[in-house]
Every structure is written in C-alpha cells, then in structure tokens.
Amino acid sequence: MSTRASEPLPKDWPAGRSLAISVNVMLEGWTDDAAPGLGPMGNPLKRGTLDLQARSWAAYGPRAGAWRILDVLAAKSTRAVFYVSGIVAERHPELVRAIADAGHAVAAHSWAQNVVPASETAESEAHHLARCVAVLEQTSGARPRGWLSPRCTPSARTTALLAAEGFTWHADFFDRDLPSIERTDAGPIVAMPFTMEVHDLPLAIAHGNEPEAFPRIVERLVADWPSLPSSTPACVDITVHAHVFGRPAGALQFARALDIVHRYDAWSWLTEHRTLAGLWAPGI
Question: What percentage of residues in the chain have a pLDDT greater than 70?
Fold first, then answer.
C-alpha cells in the first residue's frame, strides 16, 4: 500500500464510499488560424492545410452539444465542472452564463486549445491565463477556481502561476489516486488527479469503437470495484467533450453512464473537482 493511499480521508468524504467519480465536460475552442489535431475523418491533410472539417466538428460543442449535455445533467440531478476555453466564452457568453446558472462550476481550459502552456514563453502564458480568467469571470459571474491545460500539458511554471492567481485546484496531474496539496513558491494549490479510463474522445476517433463502449467501461469499473485486492479509496473521472458526446448518440450513452454510477452508490459517489478540492483545502 502506498504512503499516499494510507493517509486519512477528509472528514466530509462520504463514509463507506471508496470510489469518487467526478464528472467533467470539456467545452473547447480554437483560434481562427487553427483546428483540432484529431477528428473523426482520421486521415491527415497535407501539412499546412487548415482542416475546416475538424473546425466544423469542434464548433458543434458550443452551438448544440453543450446545451444537450446541460439537459442530461439536469435530468440526472448531477453537477459537473465545465472546463471552458476562454475563446469559447468570448464567442458564446450566453452559454457560459447558462452553465453557471445551472449550478455547474466554470473552470479554465486555457485561452484556446492550440495555446498549450508547455510551448509558451513565460510572458505568453501569463497573458493568456489573465485573458482567460477575465472573460470567464465576466461571462459566468465568478472568477474560475480550477484549471486544466489543453492536452493536460502544463509548463513548469503553471502550478505556481495558478496559485499566485488564486486558483484552488489544478487538474493536470496523472500520478496519484487522490487529490493532494501542492506547495509552490506562490502558495498552496490542490493537485487534482485526472484519469483517462472513461473518456469519450478515444471512442470518437478510433475505428471499430461505438458509443455504447462508454457505459460498458463505467459498468465494469464501478460494479467490480469492491473485488479489487486493495480497498484504498480513489478518484476516477467521467469526461465528455461538448463537441463529441454532446451529439445524440454520445449523450444517450453519457446519460446511461450516470445512471450506472447512481445504481452502485453503496460504494461509489458522483461528484466533481470543485467539491473534491473543497474537501482537501477548504481554506484555499
């Protein structure tokens, strides 16, 4: 058993429920000169060609997909964190306001998906972070408290920069089962684990996969959880993209996945990163 897993859980962690399942919605946008690097067509275009098909595919998210996901979450009485690109908030302020009004957390997902902290200069990263925070605060009515980098790839500066800007949690961590406090020169921040086991994007871009695989993965994970040799608690994410599982076929399977978690609530509980961050660091 690892040292981290043996540490006491926060007092408000639900008793007897060792599997916490966070619901994340990615609401992503690209700058006008860029497009998603992955798309349903699969075959890459000639280098330097702007992929207008991929851009159109991604634009479905704020135009239709996010609204459908909001309906699913409402029907299933489930709260999520929406990780939102600043450029989407600038283009679709009414959508971000609707997300916040529905009680979901609006967190930051960089200015745009092609603006990756790991490839930016210090000045560029600080500029895009400030720009993203400003537009999310203006459109949602509250300053964002959580961050997830595009591609989940921060720079070596990102965690401290977020702490300095007053963020509560940073979700670019893949090396742990539970949240923990990350100490930086600018102050503490919750390092939020992010998992990829239940994620819609691989299903959308891999030939031979169908949306029904999504709830099957959830069923196997949650139903079989008590059979693991170790009973140590862990966090797992259910992650959908508004432009992927916001479409009808995907939304149906997302709804079924939420039903499955509710069915096994003797040992699992549906939550989201905002709540987990509050358990670990109520004072941040």
Answer: 94
